[in-house]
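Question (not urgent): is this output format expected?
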Amino acid sequence: MTLRRRTFLAGSLALGLTGCATVTRSTDIAALNRPVALPTYKRFEGPKPDLPRSHPLMPDCFYRFPEHPVTVTHGAPGDGHDVTGSAPTSNPIPPSADRNPYWQELNKRLGAPLELNITAAADYPNKFATAVAGDTLGDLFNVDGGFAYLPQFLEARAQDLTEYLSGDAILEYPFLANAPQASWRGCVFSGGIRAVPIQRGIMSSNTLLVRQDLMDQLGVALGSPTPDDLQKVAKAVTDGRKNRWGLAVPPTATLSAMLGLPNGWEVRDGKLVHSRELPEHKEMLAITRQMVKDGVIHPDGVAKANQKVWFTQGSAVMTQDTYSSIQSFYRRATDQSFSISIPVPRTADGKVGRVLLGSPNNSIAAIRPGPPARIKTLLRVLNWFAAPFGTEEYLFRKFGLPGRHYTLNGTDPVLTKDGGSEVCLGEFPIQYLADGPYPAYFPGHPEAVDTAYAHFKAVLPTAITSPTYGLYSPTQSTKGKILDTRMDSLTKDIQLGRADLNSWDDAVADYRKSGADAIRNELEQALAIKGEK
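Got this back:
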């Protein structure tokens, strides 16, 4: 599962910061992006992955859960005092601790009662704003990085963790040290480490997923498609009379890779250029507009409603989603022949496309300021939350108690009905306070691991990350959401034929004048400060 919360109410945040004498809405790019020594990365040497890592960004790939999980912590991390917090969930909210045996056992293992305020992800931005204003976030709180004045907010309301985590200091918390430095870059603001990462790595990247079982039934082969190949195959498998379309949604991520577009911003000839400014972006719009006109995208696909259901049920033969979503698709599938393939995108001249990799983190989590002893206790709790795959702690954290919450299929844990409810479908919201690296592990489907691994091996050598991740632009924080919404709205209008394709040119010019040029300038300054430009 991947959460994205970019709709935080800046006004409510400002209200919450009123009266904090130390807070100023600084636009000093140098101060806001001042670097710090990142935590030392020390990979946890746990169970050996079933497949060798061929690239630094490749996740560990496991066919099955280790038969004998090892306990890697000693004693409870808590000190007996309550730990409070705020976190979102995209699953049904689990029963409260007094009615939840999983939560009760979690409290025992933590050595501290956990009082967690869990909110539906869609409601979390408003709830968070209210908690900021009322100073009721708790000891540990998940916060998205997309709202206004984030550095100032964290300076005022979050503990500066630099002395505890910078350099080798983090080695006291070995599972937090298991997060790569790319993830920690998203936690540095105003020259301090002010949060811990909720890491996802490349598993959060969007890609093209294909119902290979349906392709085989229809006798159609996709292979490693170019833009023309993708359009031809989408037409070949579409049959509206049978309620079947080639694509659930416009395949923008795959087309971006095929057309060589940047991952948001990209440095070209010493200057930052945004994807939206390039002719290839307009070409992508033209292709998806034609796909909609040809009827190969689900009729509601531009609105992106129920795309997961369409793909699972076979109303769409292809969809765009993350690598991490593969597990949930297999879990939902009722057809025993259900299988997913992941094609390698190619450019028009046959080269492997530049896949756009997702951000290293899902989000970040912060700690309320306190005395050193309390901060160290809370860091020990977060370290426990981040115990990695293959450990006994991970098995409990994700699947609960044997018998009640899960049974074993071989060595793979399978959630029971109580596990689905009480453990929140294996995603109890403590995973939005700290989490370990996200492996390529799809219980009961080793063939899906092979599929993902082959794709990683093919695309990672040329895949691209965002060069501006971890940089802060004041204009982006205050105007970025508005600008993105405006451009996304026009994108849909163009795809649906409600706006002329050439209207994109005027929109880009206005986009630049309305804030994108200012964002570019601020990000270029930040890149220069960090020596990356």
